[in-house]
Design goal:
With about 220 residues, the protein is α/β, with parallel strands linked by helices. It has an eight-stranded parallel beta sheet. The protein binds D-xylitol-5-phosphate and zinc ion (ZN). D-xylitol-5-phosphate binds next to strand 2, strand 3, strand 8 and helix 7. Zinc ion binds next to strand 2.
Amino acid sequence: MKKVLVSPSILSSDFSSLYEDVLSVKMAGADWIHYDVMDGHFVNNISFGAPIIKSIAKRVGLFCDVHLMIEEPLKYINDFIDAGASLVTVHLETIDDKKFEEFLNICHKNNVKVGLSIKPNTDVKKLDKYLKNIDVVLIMSVEPGFGGQEFLTNSLVKIEYLDKLRNKENLDFLIEVDGGINDKTAPLCREKGVDVLVSGSYIFKAKNREEAINKLKEVGE
Ligand code: DX5
Ligand code: ZN
């Protein structure tokens, strides 16, 4: 099975010692760090914004994976780029073609990678026309808003569809999956061709975080 990257979601970390907690998953072998930004409109929860990311992302020094679950991503995107984002992922449900062009231009101008995400009930084919222009597709395998939910298996069909399409059309975006990822669900995603596993509660609640990350990376090898 091909190599996979692991991006721990800090939503499940201890916010009272956020920097130390993020550092601990870096030491445990994390490849990226996943920052879940929620506005209480696009999803039923509020998490944190650019200042929190700014205060730790550069200090931690890992690839900064920003997942914007917000109604108006373009209004705030420069704040997240300024905070140190390496990749900004916005939801397809929040943009139209014109906004996508604008999103692309801002990211390219700032040398930031471009990601598009879809919720569990959004048809994966709606991504087709954007695929040649983006770096990452983020498939939500839970309803966005909260950590600790159960993995939705309809995401496996989407991962498989995207993997086949990129092989057929020679595209090079990465496929990332987010929600309910643990040692049982990670191999299912990997079999379908996923490249990046986001995982919050499984990693942050593990007694041994290094072991947890290794399990996500090693299964099936
Ligand atoms: C959900 C977030 C996820 C979440 C994952 O809206 O996008 O990144 O934190 O948490 P777990 O791995 O616990 O499902
Ligand atoms: Zn996320």
